[in-house]
Amino acid sequence: VDACFTIMSTRDHKRKGDKGQEGPLPGASSSSQSSTSFHHSNEDVEIEDVEELELILESNGGKEKAKMKGWIFQGVDLSSVDYLLECDVHGAHFWGCTFPRGVDPATLRERGAHVLDNPADIPFKPYRGFMYSQEELSEVDKKIYRYYLDNTSMLSASAQSVHDYSIRDALFDYLEGKTVVSIMGGHGLSRVSDSYKQTVIMARTLAREGFLVTTGGGPGAMEAANLGAYLADKPDDILDDVLSMLAQGNDEYEHEFENEKAAQNVLDKYGMPTFMPSLGIPTWRYGHEPPNKFATWQAKFFSNAIREDGLITISNGGVIYCEGSAGTRQEVFQDACRNHYATPTEATPMIFLGVKHWTDPGVFQLVQATSQGCAYHDLLLCTDDTKEVLEHINKHKNNRNLPTHKLEEYKGKFWIKNTCNFHENAPCHVNKRPRPDK
After folding, report:
1. How many CA atoms lie within 13 A of 82 on its CB side?
2. pLDDT of res. 415
């Protein structure tokens, strides 16, 4: 299983022209001042729910004419599709699906389909079509962490790799057509600190301005950023109440992140995350730290190496580094390495929030000195002023012609490409992809 976390955008994914030279993908701008938002990484017909299946069948002549060869069903509940055996399923792939009464995997295999089941004896689904919602993750997170600690066999490692590939693919579906700004920082940032509130307000503004706010999905600065994006569609005057609720009861715990009740109280009062541009990418490598409750989606991985590299790579709108320790510094230098070898149109902002924190140990100075002569040198910023941060991010967005979106645009089913309006050039499952039998 290819569990590598490489983002397939036009900055990485190139084609050979007639004379063998590299060139942009069809539809991508050739301007040196422009970049692109994310696009889907493959030409397979991927199906994540029944509505999507019916749209694809309609665009392929209906169930009587459609040939499903090469179609990939990812964790789809097909129990209501009583016409499944009327379709030509030869060469179709059913991964972790449930089937209607009277249809079993053996019957589908006899007709030439490829069927892979999710094992019943493990607490997670290797084959799945979506990232984790807060509701699902809260039910399975601790069980999966215990499994992760207790199982090191080859079979377990294989299942974890398949799971991480599925999460990666679901994440790419969600990223398509979006501009990602990642906010990194320490897990120990206190909920009652000025820096926590500053991060909340900054992330709320970024979400309102149309960026997808992404974090490592954990506590501290990560929670503050996801909280800010969660609050993007809510009145400003509830912020003090939310912060007051989050301050309750923390003294009873050794670590603030153990106080999950305070965050749950906020959700009970103001609602669960629904569609706000708030994404977390945590890992069971640090499963003792629960994922924060304010991300709309959690793309949780077993492999921390895949997760760390992915957090940097997907951040086409830039990375903001709040105060943090060793883990945050690791991310700084991963980002610097990627940027160091990037072309001018691939380089992305690196923003250090907290002048004293980043200059006293010389971190910012080292990155600044290393970047001399590279495109990202001019994209570095070290400041205490979040207004300056936002101006820097927006300048990059405008220079690269990156898209931003109104909050209501996030309500559509992003996995069905004709139900949302993220990017006019984004490929569509239904009517823009080639039929797999051609």
Report:
1. 1
2. 86
- Give the neighbor-by-neighbor strand order of the sheet with 45-47: 45-47, 71-74, 93-95, 114-116
Q: How far apart are CA 344 and CA 332, in angstroms?
A: 19
The tens digit of pLDDT for each residue in 102-136 reads 999 999 999 999 999 999 999 999 999 999 999 99
**How far is residue 165 from each of residues 115, 125, 245, 302, measured CA to CA in Å?**
17, 12, 37, 10
Alpha-carbon gap, residue 384 to 421, rounded angstroms: 35
Give the C-alpha separation, 58 to 394, whole Å.
41
Q: What are the pLDDT digits (tens) for 44-97?
A: 789 999 999 999 999 888 988 999 999 999 999 999 999 999 999 999 999 999
Interior angle at CA 286, CA 282 and CA 288, nearest 5? 115
Specify the pLDDT at position 418.
52
CA nearest 308: which of 289, 326, 283, 271? 283
pTM above 0.90, yes or no: no
Contact 222, 187 (CB under 8 A): yes
The answer to whether residue 430 scores a pLDDT higher than 60 is no
Q: Hey, what are 227's tokens?
A: 């909280």
Residue of 348, 309, 28 whose CA lies nearest to 181: 348
Question: 376, 347, 338, 415: which is closest to 166 by C-alpha?
Answer: 415
Question: 100: exposed, middle or buried (C-beta count within 10 Å: 0-12, 13-18, 19+)?
Answer: middle
Q: Which helix (H) or strand (E) holds 318?
A: none
CB 89 within 8 A of CB 68: yes
CA distance 345 to 90: 43
Rounded CA-CA distance 254/245 in Å is 18
Q: What is the pLDDT of residue 150?
A: 97
301 versus 1: the higher-pLDDT residue is 301
Mean pLDDT of 331-347: 95
The tens digit of pLDDT for each residue in 210-233 reads: 999 999 999 999 999 999 999 999
The strand pairing partners of 98, in sequence order, are 77
User: In a 3-state reduction of DSSP, which class is residue 184?
Assistant: strand
